[in-house]
Amino acid sequence: MTEPERDPHCLFCRIIAGELPALKILETASAIAIADINPQAPTHVLVIPRRHISGIAVVTPEDAATLAGIFDLANQVASARGLDQSGYRLVINQGPDAGQSVPHLHIHVLGGRPLQWPPG
Questions:
Q1: Among 32, 47, 64, 117, which residue's beta carbon has the most beta carbons within 10 A?
Q2: How far apart are CA 98 and CA 113, in angstroms?
Q3: Is there a contact between 84 and 76 (Cβ–Cβ < 8 Å)?
């Protein structure tokens, strides 16, 4: 079963549709990057595919272009924020125990300070 292009109840789908405000950082035809409303580092940006995918666990080989698009945009964000030399972390959470609070696939781009390991 494939997921809908847009879920009218999804917070990120509503942001992408312009129904809810967000601070847009960068965008492409396939993805959008917005500032996280609860930043955990000096740079904390969410990169979200425009097409609704509920999480990484449901990704299929047919989603390869979508994944390439969000990783490309995440790298663009890091470069635009000057993190490409010092380093940055890309995080994808799957499910509530991992910290996924919005059921729409997204990448956290974190950087701007030394990040600890393990993360949580």
A1: 47
A2: 22
A3: no
Q: What is the pLDDT of residue 2?
A: 63
Q: Which residues are catalytic?
A: 106
Residues 18, 111, 89: CA angle, nearest 5 degrees: 90
Q: pLDDT tens-digit profile of 18-55?
A: 999 999 999 999 999 999 999 999 999 999 999 999 99
Question: What count of other Cβ atoms lies within 10 Å of the Cβ of residue 30?
Answer: 16
Confidence of residue 106 (pLDDT cuts 50, 70, 90): very high
Q: Which of 48, 109, 115, 49 is nearest to 78 (CA)?
A: 109
Q: Sorting pLDDT into bands at 50, 70 and 90, what band is 1?
A: low
Q: What does the domain layout of the chain look like in residue ranges?
A: 11-111
Q: 11-111 is classed in which CATH architecture?
A: 2-Layer Sandwich (3.30)
**Residue 108: strand pairing partners:** 46, 91
| Residue 114 one-letter amino acid | P
120/117 Cα distance (integer angstroms): 8
Q: What is the pTM of this model?
A: 0.94
